[in-house]
Design goal:
The protein has 330 residues and is mainly α. 54% of the residues lie in helices and 7% in strands. It has 13 helices and five strands. The strands form two sheets. It has a three-stranded parallel sheet with strand order 1-2-3. Strand 4, helix 8 and strand 5 form a beta-alpha-beta unit. Helix 3 crosses helix 12. The chain is globular, with a radius of gyration of 21 Å. The protein starts with a strand and ends in a 7-residue tail after the last helix. The structure holds adenosine-5'-triphosphate and L-tryptophanamide. The site of adenosine-5'-triphosphate has 21 residues, from helix 1. L-tryptophanamide binds next to strand 1 and helix 7.
């Protein structure tokens, strides 16, 4: 069975973007692939997090993974820092990555361009840790949203370079970006990604949001003055985003939705999208509440970390032998 690995970095509450672009796909894949999914808590702290809030976000993220359908019997679910090999291989990967490569990473460049202050070294070297996260497990595929594709491509470059230098060690993974829903945009600023860390709560639907608030956010989504429901991402990015959300969740093609909405207004489309999103969130939230009150999370994470560690440990030992940092092992 082929293997997949992915992660989410819960720097805040998980969003509809995380669900459509990532989580939902993990759930679909878990029947056909050996699936490893972790909560990237080491990535979270590349930007300061309030410790109490972070603890809650991490627990919520695990509960939401399961509430969205990840099954601990089928998928290995764990917390990144419970498997220490991530940090150790991350350092080794940083020693095999060039500054020029990190300087080209769009996510970091965007932050630099905004003149954000207090950017940390951890944020800069984040792609090296992400490469380690992936390469420890030799996955065939890494399912991610559009914004993470560049990091997976860098991971491939690092793996190939390492294999050439030290002989075959890592499988070179493929990024897997789904066609629909790879980039859900903010509801009130459809030119920017729906994002949990931008502080734009009105444009962002959180999976644990009150459903009335969700409906309100969708009904107030920014659209345009064209007045026709059609597929025109460039001139009608808000409508395109609503069609994308609808299509990703309902499975109906954007063309078919547009056909049904010939001669109808934006308000009606928004109401239908709100119904679909709220229907989906209602199910997720009710399962989330059961999971949180069941106290099952600790055991799931313990089992997951044991299974992940078994693989990561062997891979790190191999890497350390190959690069010559151990004295008595060949
Ligand atoms: P941040 O907002 O802090 O940058 P994020 O919401 O992008 O974070 P990540 O942990 O970086 O969250 O992403 C987890 C996964 O969810 C990644 O595969 C990412 O590509 C996907 N994802 C995140 N936001 C969206 C979005 N708006 N549309 C589609 N996929 C998304
Ligand atoms: N950087 C990713 C989260 C992440 C990840 C990974 C995704 C950390 N390590 C390994 C896939 C594989 C993000 O989504 N921000």
């Amino acid at each position: 069975m082929k293997r997949m690995l992915s992660a989410i970095k819960p720097t805040g509450q998980l969003t509809l973007g995380n669900y459509i672009g990532a989580l939902r796909n993990f759930v679909k894949y878990q029947d056909d692939y050996e699936m490893y999914v972790f909560v990237a808590n080491l990535h979270c702290i590349t930007v300061y997090q309030d410790p109490k809030q972070l603890r809650k976000n991490l627990k919520d993220a695990v509960a939401l993974y399961i509430a969205c359908g990840l099954d601990p019997e089928k998928s290995v679910i764990f917390l990144q820092s419970d498997v220490m090999e991530h940090a150790q291989l991350g350092y080794i990967m940083a020693c095999n990555t060039y500054l020029g490569e990190l300087n080209r990473m769009t996510q970091f460049k965007d932050k630099m361009a905004k003149n954000e202050t207090g950017l940390t070294a951890g944020l800069y070297t984040y792609p090296c840790l992400m490469a380690a996260d992936i390469l420890l497990y030799d996955p065939d595929y890494v399912p991610v949203g559009d914004d993470q594709k560049q990091h997976v491509e860098l991971t491939r470059d690092i793996a190939e370079r390492f294999n050439n230098r030290y002989s075959e060690t890592f499988k070179v993974p493929e990024p897997l970006v789904s066609k629909v829903g790879k980039r859900i945009m903010s509801l009130n600023d459809p030119l920017h990604k729906m994002s949990k860390s931008e502080g734009n709560d009105k444009g962002c639907v959180y999976l644990l949001d009150d459903l009335k608030a969700v409906r309100k956010k969708i009904m107030s989504a920014v659209t345009d003055s064209v007045g026709i429901i059609q597929i025109d991402q460039e001139n009608q990015p808000g409508i395109y985003n609503l069609l994308e959300i609808h299509s990703a969740l309902s499975g109906e093609s954007k063309e078919s939705i547009c056909n049904r909405y010939q001669g109808k207004g934006y308000g009606e489309l928004k109401a239908e999208v709100a119904d679909i999103v709220c229907g989906e969130l209602e199910k997720i939230q009710s399962r989330y509440n059961e999971i949180i009150s069941s106290g099952m999370i600790d055991k799931i994470l313990e089992d997951g970390a044991n299974k992940a560690h078994y693989i990561a440990y062997k891979k790190l030992a191999k890497v350390q032998r190959k690069i010559g940092i151990e004295i008595n092992k060949k």
